Each structure stands twice: as structure tokens, then as C-alpha cells.
Amino acid sequence: MSLAGITAGPLILRFELPESLAGKVNVGSRVVSEGRSGTVARLYPSVQAGQITADVALPGLDGSLIGRRVAARVAIGTRRAVIVPRTFVTTRYGIDYVTVVEKGGRASTVPVQIAATAEPGQVEILSGVGAGDTLSAGAAPQ
User: Fold this and answer.
1) I need a labelling partner for 27 at 20 to 30 A (CA). Which of 65, 85, 95, 109 fits?
2) Which stretches of the chain are assigned E, i.e. beta strand?
3) Which of residues 4 and 135 earns the better pLDDT score?
């Protein structure tokens, strides 16, 4: 099964993606492959064997990838998230907490639900605080 191919002419990467991504991948979607970052240059409207085809322009692409399978990450959408350094989160008895500083300067400990991110040393806060809350990395009140 071919996952990607390189066409003749200007070197581009041709991807075959699952049909389920057809409505999520657009011309201009960001793609990272082989340490290079590029964008989807063209989407083909036909579906063959449950796959859609996309051409990706990757600057600096050379012929060494011809005939090879390559791994790639394709942006299929964005969402807003609260990302904080892991050092802002303390864990006690299996529950994660952050310190929230109110407008009057009073600090309080709030339980949160966190998830890992692609960035080392960073976590996403899924619930417990939101955009606009001020967090402190200092010791939390007991």
C-alpha cells in the first residue's frame, strides 16, 4: 500500500489520506514530514479505495525520498486550549491542583484535570480553570 509518492517535475509529496479526513484537510493545511514543514498545495476530489489524495509542497525536498514511505503529521483543525508549564501543577493524593490568584491578590488551590501535550514540560488544563484566570507557580496554600 503506497502512503506517499513523489511526482515528476517540481518535487512534491503526494499523500493518500483516509476518506474520513476529506472535510478536515484543506489547501493550506500544515504538514510536517521528514523534519520539514510545508502545506497542502492541492486536494484531488476523487475518492479511491477509501482514500483521498493530496499534494504537499515541502521546501528543500530532495530525491532521496522517491519510492520511500514517510511519516507525516497533517493539521486537521485547531482548537483553543489552556497550556501551562507542568511546574504550575501539584499533585496530592492523585489529584492535580493549580494555584489561582484572584484580583484582590488572594490565592486559592483549585483541582484541575490535565492532559499531556506534544511539548515537553507543558500540560493542557482540560477543566478547573479557564482563559483569563491568573495562575501562580509558587507554593499553593494548604
Assistant:
1) 65
2) 4-6, 13-18, 30-33, 36-43, 51-57, 72-74, 82-85, 90-92, 95-101, 107-116, 122-127, 134-136
3) 135
